[in-house]
């Protein structure tokens, strides 16, 4: 999973050195800010991540010669953070900027093109525009199937994204098919464990909605086992706590459900803005569980 604190210390020392010996518009300094931003994003410190990404973009936009593809990657990073913060219009704005540059500078099936399609899809999914989300995810899959090996972990990410949209649209059989395709790759090749945790969580939520609670719990526990290695206030932990709260509520175990939803609300209130859709959902579930006692 990586020692994020050590990574931050290393990248911060590198940045301090670069600022002393390099000109202010050096691409190496932009990379340094980008690396720091990535760590902050991974541990759920989205405001700090955004500050670093903005500094990286500011340097890249002034660099000569301008590296368009590198700039597009930074735009995509900013799209990701804005999406995580719940600012979906800004997220779409930067995702589209990244896509426009990639379309102008890369071959039509270059694997980098899948990045803005993926984040646009996730934003539309969060906005409950599922048909549009599916359109973007399927475009990302088309690119990745053309550009990457059959069992590449990035293809698994897209399978899981598509599966989650099918779940949200109520097509559970299709959802399970895509999630299991993702998991078959992730359990057999080296990949980011957090991506595997997302697939476990998505499978768990699919089975929960199908009312197969024992199977749902197995997958939630697998996802939680991985995500528990994140900082204790990471927003991704709140997601799985919320899922487990809903499961225990459905099975009549209201005291356990309340424990999990309280954890989700506490993290959401600390890490997300007051109007973030996820936090509002956690509070709604909290009130539902509390009202049943």
Automatic annotation (TrEMBL):
TPR repeat positions: 30-63, 72-105, 114-147, 156-189, 197-230, 238-271
Listed name of the protein: Tetratricopeptide repeat protein
Origin: domain of life: Eukaryota
Keyword Repeat attributed: yes
Keyword annotations: Repeat, TPR repeat
Organism whose genome encodes this protein: Rotaria magnacalcarata
Keyword Repeat: yes
UniProt-listed SUPFAM superfamilies: HCP-like
InterPro entries referenced in this protein's UniProt entry, alphabetically: TPR-like_helical_dom_sf (IPR011990), TPR_rpt (IPR019734)
